[in-house]
């Protein structure tokens, strides 16, 4: 069975984006962009929902730095609102249940899988026990007044075991965790 990595970029206060701010909060350091470009995961299928697809394909079309490398990568979009043909190259649309489809993909894929954004998709995959690695790049900004897309709202309680970390220039922090979904807070017996 292949590994599934959930990937997020977030502000320190847990937002995935902010009104009026540029992509990557204007802090896409050359070192971070080089790390993205050199990633051995270039050929791993990227899973995303329709909102992320619409945003990222528009950014790629506009020439946003760092998005050009996504064009050649295999992408899978889970959506009941999009229809084919999709305009972004190397993108396949899945209209069936995402959890069932990802479970099958993990069993059948020749390569590990990863996500791109897609807050609700990642939340449902985590709840279903399909996430093997949780990778977060924390950007050193607080966007309390303008932040949108709070990443962790609606998540179950999750214990995270840190397996790797790195600091990029500009103070960006890469954190990789193995997640364990909890039934509730540790030390509290389940009632019933």
Describe the structure.
This protein is of the alpha/beta class and 192 residues long. It has a single domain, classed as Dihydrofolate Reductase, subunit A. The chain contains 4 helices and 10 strands. The strands form 2 sheets. It has an 8-stranded mixed beta sheet. A two-stranded antiparallel sheet has the order 2-8. The longest helix is centred in the first third of the chain and has 13 residues, at 50-62. It is globular. 24% of the residues are buried. The model has no long low-confidence stretch (mean pLDDT 91).
Largest sheet composition: 8 strands, mixed
The global form is globular
CATH fold annotation = Dihydrofolate Reductase, subunit A
Mind telling me which CATH architecture this is? 3-Layer(aba) Sandwich
What is the number of beta strands?
10
Output the radius of gyration.
Answer: 17 Å
Main-sheet strand order equals 5-4-3-6-1-7-10-9
The sequence of SSEs as H and E is EEHEHEEHEHEEEE
How many domains? The number is: 1
Task: Enumerate the spans where pLDDT stays under 50 for 5 or more consecutive residues.
Answer: none
Output the structural class.
Answer: alpha/beta
Count the DSSP helices: 4
Strand content: 25-35%
Average pLDDT over all residues: 91
Helix content: 10-25%
Distance between the termini: 34 Å
- Which CATH class applies here? Alpha Beta
CATH level-four homologous superfamily name: Dihydrofolate Reductase, subunit A
């Amino acid at each position: 069975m292949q590994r599934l990595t959930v990937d997020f970029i977030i502000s320190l206060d847990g937002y995935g984006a902010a009104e009026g701010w540029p992509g990557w909060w204007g802090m896409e350091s050359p070192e971070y962009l080089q790390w993205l470009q050199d990633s051995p995961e270039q050929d791993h299928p990227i899973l995303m929902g329709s909102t992320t697809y619409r945003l990222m394909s528009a950014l790629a079309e506009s020439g946003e730095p760092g998005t050009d490398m996504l064009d050649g990568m295999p992408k899978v979009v889970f959506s009941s609102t999009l229809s084919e043909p999709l305009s972004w190259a190397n993108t396949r649309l899945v209209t069936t249940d995402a959890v069932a489809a990802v479970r099958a993909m993990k069993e059948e894929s020749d390569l590990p899988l990863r996500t791109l954004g897609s807050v609700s998709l990642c939340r449902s995959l985590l709840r279903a026990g399909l996430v093997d690695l949780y990778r977060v790049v924390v950007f050193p900004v607080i966007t309390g007044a303008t932040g949108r897309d709070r990443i962790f709202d609606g998540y179950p309680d999750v214990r995270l075991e840190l397996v790797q970390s790195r600091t990029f220039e500009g103070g960006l922090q890469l954190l990789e965790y193995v997640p364990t979904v909890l039934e509730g807070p540790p030390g509290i017996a389940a009632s019933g």
